[in-house]
Structure formats: C-alpha cells, structure tokens
Amino acid sequence: MHAADEPLAPAEAVTRLILRGPDHDGRLRDLVADAMARAGGNLARGLTLADLATALRPLVMTSDKLASAYALERRSPYLARALVEFSYRLPVEHKITDPAQGKRILRDAAKALGLPREVWASRDKLGFASPVPSWLNTNLATWADSQIHMALTDAPPGFRPLLEEGLKHGGRFDRTRMQALMAAAWFSDQTVRAAA
Questions:
Q1: Which one, of 98, 102, 119, lies nearest residue 51 by Cα?
Q2: Is residue 129 classed exposed, middle or buried when 0-12, 13-18 and 19+ CB atoms within 10 A define those classes?
Q3: How far apart are CA 103 and CA 123, in angstroms?
Q4: Of the candidates 79, 88, 32, which has an alpha carbon nearest to the alpha carbon of residue 56?
Q5: HSE (side-chain half, CA atoms, 13 Å) at 157
Q6: Nearest to 19 by CA among 48, 55, 66
Q7: What is the pTM of this model?
Q8: Furthest-apart CA pair in the chain: how many Å?
Q9: What is the mean pLDDT of the chain?
C-alpha cells in the first residue's frame, strides 16, 4: 500500500489514472510498468505505450461495434501502423508545446494548408465523462448498495472482493462501484437462469 505523503512511481500513478479504482491482481500495473520500462525513462513515450497496451484496443472495438450497429464502415486513418510508428519516434517537442493544446502536428499542418483559424486554433472539442459513477454514490446509492448486498449473499468467493469494493463509495471517476453493480447484475441473471 502507498502512504499518502510519498510520491507514486510513474507506473503506479498511470495505473491509478487508467483504472480509477483498485487493480487487485496487478495485471494493469504490470502492463504499465512494462510500457514505462520500454520507454527508457521518457514519460511521454511511456504514456503512449501504456495507452497502446491498455486503452486503444477497447476504444477501437467499441467504435467498430457502434458503427456496425448502424451499417456504417468506419475508418481510422490516424491509426495506420506506419503513421503510429512514425509519430511515436518523433521527439516530444514536435508533438506538444503547450500541454493544454494537444494535436500540435495536425494544427500546424492545418495552418500551413491555409485552413481558417477556427479549424487549427479551435479548442471546443471536449471529452464527456459519464455521470453514472457520480449517481451511484449520490441519488442511486441506496439502490446500488441493495443490489450489491443481494448479490453478496450467494456470490461465490471469486466475486466477493469485487462486490465488497463496490460497497465503498468512490470518487467522481471511480468505476469500481459500477463494475461491482454490473457483476451483481450478471451474477443475479446467472442465478435466475440456473433456477429456471
């Protein structure tokens, strides 16, 4: 366990940022530690490798499934292997000048092509954080607790740690409670099917 006044190792800090909850078996921490080691001390490259090892595949798969659901063919030209490898090798200063303004290469290219300032200077695209984790700790807390408690009564030992962690109210972006609730719903569904 980590003491509050001690700095986190980079791999541990990134693991906590990615998971927003506990990493009980340490698998994600191992992936991130390996990425950091392969980057040879370069934090930006380590973060890139950690993203490629952890986040990229689920994002691409989800995007493909969503597009397929609407009979759309989706393309990701920026994920072409040669382009990804080239951008990985570029020095950080070519990619990031002002940390608050990402996508420097794309912005510079758009500017050089003479595109309007609204295109290359725009910062209006913002991410969306799901409100569900927050709801599960406020308005829906009583309901979530009851669902998890019901699953705990008959849960096999392998489910218990996840369910017990879900009874702890986490932070705004902590996914642990949501994961426990999904596990409780799945377990409940399996129990109902077995009884039928």
A1: 102
A2: exposed
A3: 11
A4: 79
A5: 0
A6: 55
A7: 0.52
A8: 67
A9: 80
